[in-house]
Design brief:
Distance between the termini: 11 Å
Helix content: 40-55%
Shape: elongated
CATH superfamily of the largest domain: P-loop containing nucleotide triphosphate hydrolases
Subunit structure: Part of the signal recognition particle protein translocation system, which is composed of SRP and FtsY.
Structural class: alpha/beta
Catalytic activity: GTP + H2O = GDP + phosphate + H(+)
Number of domains: 2
Strand order of the largest sheet: 3-2-4-1-5-6-7-8
Organism: Winogradskyella aurantia
Number of strands: 8
Radius of gyration: 21 Å
Membrane topology: Peripheral membrane protein
Number of helices: 12
CATH topology of the largest domain: Rossmann fold
GO biological process, one term: SRP-dependent cotranslational protein targeting to membrane
Order of helices and strands: HHHHHEHEHEHEHEHEHEEH
CATH architecture of the largest domain: 3-Layer(aba) Sandwich
Length: 317
């Protein structure tokens, strides 16, 4: 199987396969029509493949890169058969993802450090941000880590309440203030509490407003600046949560947030309910930000560490 050796447990792999089923079925339905009656990869097949990748939400720029890589292989081997196209796609897309994602991680882990590892979570409302935070807290706690949550999305009472529900469900402490409080103040209190409790991981929720980018940028900058007063190099990770089911809209959100703040990793959620799984490939490539986690179901175990080999294997198997 080469690069595509099995890394995940059978249970996790089954969950990933199931989560990507709609995307895979849609993609291969289109691909089978494109190569029907064709024995070798020619210009017509490549043109059709280009259209399929774009309509599978891989994105135009990333699609052109993939097509270019395949054209180079066709040029070397004039009689490249359509039967080999699936394997070639797997190899080239895994290669493309390798430029941004390490791909070896399979477990939820953090770097070893004396101070708390601080994750600041950003993303618009409705993408599954709070759920992702709750599931992350669960996975880190399962690894034996002490986790503290911070409810710094103070613009919506529902956001604070939802995070409290997750904190209770997972059994981790939460630091919160009343609705309308200063988000930076909440972040400051959360980190102070985490240091006092010798916490390993701090996960800070932030407001998800995009209607005014200047305000968003100023707010996130202030939150980060205040964090550094407690933990010098915090945040260690700025995690952008995107809803994979929104396809091209997720690209736009990534564009807005990467312009507003320094995003260091991505979580792509709700892949199980959509045929737009190709968005993971395009967003990772276009923004050169690694995808760290993917959501492939509603269960608490259905947030997975993104592994490019397992993802491509599930998508193209």
């Amino acid at each position: 199987m080469g690069l595509f050796k099995k890394i995940f447990s059978s249970e996790k792999k089954e969950s990933l396969d199931k989560g990507l089923e709609k995307s895979k079925t849609s993609f291969f339905g289109k691909l089978n029509k494109a190569v029907a009656g064709k024995s070798k990869v020619d210009d017509d097949v490549l043109d059709n493949l280009e259209e399929i990748l774009v309509t599978s939400d891989v994105g135009v720029n990333t699609t052109l890169k993939v097509i270019e890589r395949i054209e180079e292989r066709v040029a070397k081997d004039k009689y490249l058969g359509t039967s080999e196209l699936n394997q070639i796609l797997r190899e080239e897309i895994a290669g493309l993802l390798s430029e941004t994602n390490s791909g070896e991680a399979t477990e939820f882990s953090i770097p070893e450090m004396k101070q708390p590892y601080v994750i600041m979570v950003v993303g618009v409302n409705g993408v599954g941000k709070t759920t992702t935070i709750g599931k992350l807290a669960y996975q880190f706690k399962k690894q034996g880590l002490n986790v503290v949550l911070g409810a710094a999305d103070t613009f919506r009472a529902a956001a604070i309440d939802q995070l409290q529900v997750w904190a209770d469900r997972v059994g981790v402490p939460i630091v919160k203030q009343s609705m309308g409080s200063d988000p930076a103040s909440v972040a400051f209190d959360t980190l102070q509490s985490a240091v006092t409790q010798n916490a390993d991981v701090v996960i800070i929720d932030t407001a998800g407003r995009l209607h005014n980018k200047v305000n968003l940028m100023n707010e996130l900058t202030k939150v980060k600046r205040v964090m550094k007063k407690v933990v010098e190099d915090a945040p260690h990770d700025v995690l952008l949560v995107l809803d994979g089911s929104t396809g091209q809209n997720a690209f736009e959100q990534a564009k807005q947030f990467t312009a507003a703040t320094e995003v260091t990793s991505l979580a792509v959620t709700k892949l199980d309910g959509t045929a737009k799984g190709g968005v993971v490939i395009g967003i990772s490539d276009q923004f050169q930000v690694p995808v760290k986690y993917i959501g492939v179901g509603e269960g608490i175990e259905d947030l997975q560490v993104f592994n490019k080999y397992e993802f491509v294997d599930s998508f193209f198997r």
